[in-house]
Request: fold
Amino acid sequence: MKMTIQLCRLSLLAFMLFFMMAASPTLAQDGEQNGEKFYMTKFCITCHGQKGISVAPNYPNLAKQNERYLANQVKDIIQKKRANKLTLLMTENPVVNKISDEEIAAVAAHLTNIKVTP
Reply:
């Protein structure tokens, strides 16, 4: 029951963020390949926190993970090779489904090199 409530709250937040993003120009249009900005605008922050430290215990921390590992995990989830209740937020999100390989690589590089303060 708690998991369902959390997923509903996160879905609502993602829905609101989607409409905020739709009103602003995309980062790709601006020619910007900044992993931090992609991380903040592609909904990663919703579950994985501002600095890659999860906001809930059921989502993994992404900060300081291996770059290739992160990129492969995102691709597998988007391609539905890994499917569970938690990955539904990614696979059902139209913004996440349209993320490019370049954007995934930029986010993975950002998370690998992010500075996390205790």
